[in-house]
Amino acid sequence: MAATPTPMPEAEVVREATRRLLEVLPPSWSGELVAPPAVGPLRRNDAELTVRAPSGAAAIVPIEAKRIIEGRDVATIAEGAGSHIGSSGSNLIVMARYLPATVRDRLTDAGLSWADATGNMRVSLTWPGLFVFSRGADSDPWRGPGRPKGTLKGAPAAKVVRALIDFDREWSMRDLAEVSRASTGATYRVVEFLEEEGLVERANSRVVARDWQSILRRWSADYSFTRTNQTSKWIAPRGIDDVLARARETSDLRYAITSTVAASRRAPYAPPRSLMVYAESSDEIADAWDLRPAESGTNVVLAQPTYEVVFERADAWDGMTMAALSQVAVDLLTGPGRSPSEAEELINWMSRNEPVWRR
User: Whole-model pTM?
Assistant: First the structure.
């Protein structure tokens, strides 16, 4: 049995994160870590970092350190940032043993600098002018085996996430489990993970997802059209328009069009060059739509879904079946080429028109 990693105390977090930061400072820059004295009734900094430019200009930067920071902690840290003691124009640096990507993004959005003990860092000072960015580990090397890393992988997570995004309401756990068709236990686990990430609010036994965009983007880290499902590549010899015409004539087959074609009905971005489709039976769809298997020059990708939820709340449009917009958006976010840009266009439309698509 592997040994449980030794927990890293906050003092060691500060020393290690600072050591890594000093290693990547520009030439002729220097820094020194000091433990500040208590200052009256004001909050004491966990540490202070003196950063000095080649010109001699220096800033004393306050540090707040925690062993672990979760997404829900960021708002509190940002709110209390003004209570830290530091020189005028300097920025608080938040340090932890490991900062997940979602937490790093939230700290950045809050205008805070950050660094962790694996080497992930983004430090920005207004005076003297300094910007440092570096990549460290992609996972927490100190996470013990008794606490598995939370993810949004798997069918239960997809079901719960889709429900939270598709419906604008306050949920009881019972209602969320019923509508999402996930088990009660799985629903609790997904909600707890999203709460830790600061993506849902839970009070008085009710769950509210106010920021569906952040939930969607977090889900895209663990789900994608091509990685999650069994896909096959095809050529439509007469082009995409011919395939769509055939789709209108095959309402008896179970499918859901996603990606560019599905997004274009709400947020046109550019003429579709390919077609991506969830198909209960790829062979039946290929036969009905006159598709030819191919490895190159393909313009159609069929996916036999791993999760049934991809068909949930699909829309009938112009005689065809389109995947729900939440599904379309996550597929575009993880797609190739211009797909992420198309996703942003669609998400912007969804934000402006929530009453149209959120139930």
Answer: 0.70
CA-CA distance, 170 to 176, in Å (whole number)?
A: 9
Task: Could you list the beta-strand ranges (E) of the chain.
Answer: 30-34, 47-52, 58-68, 93-98, 113-116, 121-125, 130-134, 170-171, 201-203, 206-208, 230-235, 255-258, 275-279, 292-293, 300-304, 315-317, 320-322
Q: What residue type is assigned to position 251 of the chain?
A: S
User: Do 55 and 93 belong to one domain?
Assistant: yes
**Residue 200: DSSP 8-state:** S
Angle of CA points 306, 311, 312, to nearest 5°: 115
What is residue 77's predicted lDDT score, i.e. its pLDDT? 86
d(CA 94, CA 103): 11
> Is the separation of the CB atoms in 299 and 273 below 8 Å?
yes
Residues 352 and 232 reside in one and the same domain = yes
The amino acid at 36: P
**Whether 121 contacts 151, CB under 8 Å:** no
Vertex 201, ends 148 and 72: CA angle to 5°?
55
- For residue 344, what pLDDT band results from cuts at 50, 70 and 90? very high
In a domain, 4, yes or no: no
List, for residues 79-138, the tens digit of each pLDDT value.
877 655 454 445 789 999 999 888 898 899 888 999 999 999 999 998 888 999 999 988
pLDDT, one tens digit per residue, over 43-64 is 456 788 999 999 999 988 899 8
What is the separation of C-alpha 24 from the centre of its chain, rounded to a whole number of angstroms?
27
DSSP letter assigned to residue 308: G
pLDDT at 44: 57
What is the full DSSP assignment across 103-153?
A: HHHHHHHTT-EEEETTS-EEEEETTTTEEEEE---SS-TT--TTSPPP---
Task: Tokens for 287, please give them.
Answer: 């036969």
The pair of structure tokens assigned to 335 is 């797609």
State the number of CA atoms in the 13 A half-sphere of 43 facing the CB. 14
Instruction: Report the CATH number that the domain containing residue 161 is assigned in CATH.
Output: 1.10.10.10
**Residue 191: domain span:** 155-220
